[in-house]
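Sequence design from tokenized structure. All designs in this work follow the same two-part layout: the structure record, then the generated sequence. An example of the structure record is given first.
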């Protein structure tokens, strides 16, 4: 496996590249750079690097005690298929400040198998609810 480095140092994140790739994702079409700046500032962010170049990103919305929600998990196209998304998620699950979180959530429409390998299960318990709103233009 390629020697990727995972870092939680937000100062290292290539904001421009990260914002652009997230806006191009199926879930990011209504996003803005300003929105990403605020979202990143209010989240625990991680990125993966190869030879100092960023090649993946993920963030967690969390109170660092009871609740954790993983989102914006994105691996740059040329680095996909090597388990890097799974490694990023595992870095959050193993993070020393997040070890007491018993319930993690995430949403995906196309990568269930990636997260199932880490113990995530599809919600069918009748408790998970969601409210989706259309952004006003």
């Amino acid at each position: 496996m390629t020697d990727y480095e995972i870092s939680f140092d937000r100062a290292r994140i290539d904001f421009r590249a990260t914002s652009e790739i997230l806006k191009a994702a199926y879930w990011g079409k209504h996003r803005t750079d300003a929105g990403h700046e605020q979202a990143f500032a209010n989240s625990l962010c991680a990125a993966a690097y190869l030879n100092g170049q960023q090649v993946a990103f993920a963030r967690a919305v969390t109170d660092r005690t009871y609740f954790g929600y993983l989102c914006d998990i994105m691996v740059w196209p040329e680095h996909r298929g090597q388990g890097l998304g799974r490694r990023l998620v595992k870095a959050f699950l193993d993070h020393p400040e997040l070890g007491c979180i018993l319930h993690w959530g995430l949403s995906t429409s196309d990568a269930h198998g990636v997260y199932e390998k880490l113990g995530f299960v599809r919600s069918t318990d009748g408790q998970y609810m969601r409210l989706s709103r259309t952004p006003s233009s």
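Helices lie at 15-24, 33-41, 84-93, 112-116. We note this feature because it recurs in several other targets discussed in the main text.
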